Amino acid sequence: MGGAARDWLRGVPAKDFDWAVPDPAGAAQELARVSGGAAFPLDEERGYWRVSAPGGVQHDLVPLPVDVTADLLRRDFTVNALGVWADGRVLDPAGGRADLRSRRLRMVSRENLRADPLRAWRAARFEGTLGFRLEAGTEAAVREVALDLGAGRLPMPARERVRDELHALLGSPEAARGVARLEELGLLVLTVPEVREGLGVAQGGFHHLDVFGHSLEALHQLLARRPDAPLTLRWAALLHDVGKARTRAVDPVTGRVSFHGHERVGADLSAGILTRLKLPGDDVRRVSALVGAHMLPLPANEREARRFVHRRRDLLPDLLSLMLADREAARGPSSSEASRRAYARGFERVLAALEEQPTPPPPLLDGQAIMALLGIPPGPRVGVAARALAEAAALGEVTTPDGARAFVRAWAERTPSS
Q1: Which of 130, 255, 262, 402 has the most CB atoms within 10 Å of its CB?
Q2: Inter-axis angle of helices 231-239 and 159-170, to 10 degrees?
Q3: How many CA atoms lie within 13 A of 214 on its CB side?
């Protein structure tokens, strides 16, 4: 039933199956046995079971409804109001097969959309992931849901549910178009309003789009080059300039526009946005770090390239992908072939340094050795000295324990303790 039936009729392999059966518990346990998966109850009181099978395939099993047709007519869209009987007969009470052929996304009813407002986000997601187009009446109903949500006439879905729809959309090759569609439908203001702050914020210089359009183009450029980009990198591309609207300044004499510190403001905003959407802490920190680092200057020589790699190793190669997407999305009057070549050379230096030293060199002195050498107790100064030594080793300035001891002594002499 539902999406699995839709995908089967489209000739697309399904990974999420909904089954209506007389005995969900027994069927789940048998399915787990034959598939090599694991069965567990989702809601024992209602008899809902799930089987997680190999290959990321998921089966949800529920009791067979008294009226299967009525159950399907409570679904969101006609292409999801489809069922397939065990003998292969198709149940299509809402005309979903015709909509599949026409690549049309049509609601089963206006009431169904309003019964679960998350279906408005699902409409945008299905357009992006299925390549369908909302028919006019359904689009009007989705816009109405968005307006009523904003006005408090409908309850907002749980943030986790909105996040999951947004992640499904961002995971699509057409993620940038999907985000633009959220804006067109009035849903982006309910999801990530900070991104909308870039609408109409002109930039000039290297940029030919406003901040909002540039952010979407950067996401598009990222996926054109890295279609397998992880979700954190997709978020970073979308949010990399989210701080620009709040840092925009105009020089009163020259009229020149600037966005000084937008990467730092953007890093903080990104952390707040993703925390609000309840992403895991590690993901929040990574996206924030990428946004905060995307304006770093690229190295002009090999030594600077080794330092760049040493200091940002944990963000590579994602940081380079973000910086390239940002650069390729900017084609304003200041952009030139010469500037693009210079940028490319900086990338090549970083990649060469990363290839030369794919992992950090082992420490030449540990904390205990540094404390003994300097005659100091445990504390922050030990960590500062260790980090300075690690960078010197990464740059090839120190290669032996004797050299490391000489380096630490010299460092201590020129860096007096406070």
Answers
A1: 262
A2: 90
A3: 29
